[in-house]
Design brief:
- The protein is about 50% helix and about 15% strand.
- It is α/β, with parallel strands linked by helices.
- The protein has a domain of about 150 residues: P-loop containing nucleotide triphosphate hydrolases (Rossmann fold, 3-Layer(aba) Sandwich), CATH 3.40.50.
- A 5-stranded parallel sheet has the order 2-3-1-4-7, with helices on both faces. Strands 5-6 form a two-stranded antiparallel ribbon.
- The structure holds BIS(adenosine)-5'-pentaphosphate (AP5).
- BIS(adenosine)-5'-pentaphosphate binds next to helix 1, helix 2, helix 3, helix 6 and strand 6.
């Protein structure tokens, strides 16, 4: 199972990728998570990436391609993989196809998570993450409350730097300009494309995902 999860910021790609990766025991590679880790470590990659991520811009293709190349070379990826947040524009998608073809591999499917902008803005405003273990939470809609401690490791939850309202607006603009055209690109290609209604509870969306990829 070699999958790409495609969709706007806050669509639930990461949430669903974690659930599916756990269920089918394949690795998930999220370029955003890998870049944030590099930012935390203050590595040269992180210093470069931060300049773009804080503004909600795409990190240059050559940087991201290096990350994906290293991830897909890992022995774990031989069992299959989920790419979450990559590719994000047509040149990245072309590079991925070329890279997989070189290894006599191909994508099994692309899953597109469809959520309207209004709901995305709501989800991102409510998102809290644990900087220690990476767990992702959502403030409860009805009370706007969430414990400030991570259920899993006790870390202090925080909002992501790029979930600020003005940065979210820019991320949505960048998404519509650069990433949304990939939907048409994959529709016209040979890889199976599942367009998932990603509105509903996490469990409901997960059920739809499992049916789409044939795991239910
Ligand atoms: P990245 O980390 O990939 O961010 P993103 O694509 O904008 O996606 P998000 O992580 O914001 O959202 P998600 O869809 O994973 O949603 P989640 O499951 O968390 O990228 C960050 C930055 O890195 C980019 O801006 C760019 O600078 C750089 N970058 C990364 N990849 C790159 C690339 N390929 N090329 C160039 N630059 C790159 O859910 C969101 C919230 O909603 C959570 O609180 C969650 O609990 C909640 N939620 C989930 N599902 C539901 C549901 N069904 N109902 C209600 N709430 C839900």
């Amino acid at each position: 199972m070699n999958l790409v999860f495609l969709g706007p910021p806050g669509a639930g790609k990461g949430t669903q990728a974690n659930l599916l990766a756990g269920r089918v025991e394949i690795p998930k590679y999220a370029t955003g998570d890998i870049l944030r880790e590099a930012v935390r470590e203050n590595s040269p990659l992180g210093v470069e990436a931060k300049r773009y991520m804080d503004r909600g811009e795409l990190v240059p293709d050559e940087v991201v391609l290096g990350i994906v190349d290293a991830a897909l070379k890992s022995p774990d990826a031989e069992r299959g993989f989920i790419l979450d947040g990559f590719p994000r524009n047509v040149p990245q998608a072309e590079a991925l196809d070329a890279y997989l073809a070189q290894q006599n591999r191909a994508l099994s499917a692309v899953v597109y998570f469809d959520v309207d902008d209004e709901e995305l803005v709501r989800r991102l405003a409510r998102r809290r993450v644990c900087p220690d273990c990476g767990a992702v939470f959502s403030l409860r809609a009805e009370t706007s409350e969430v414990s400030d401690r991570c259920d899993r490791c006790g870390g202090r939850l925080e909002a992501r730097v790029d979930d600020k309202q003005e940065t979210v607006r820019n991320r949505l603009r960048v998404y519509h300009e650069n990433t949304e055209p990939l939907l048409a690109w994959y529709k016209n290609g040979s890889v199976k494309l599942f367009e998932l209604d990603a509105i509903g509870t996490v469990e409901e969306v997960h059920g739809r995902l499992l049916s789409a990829v044939g795991c239910s």
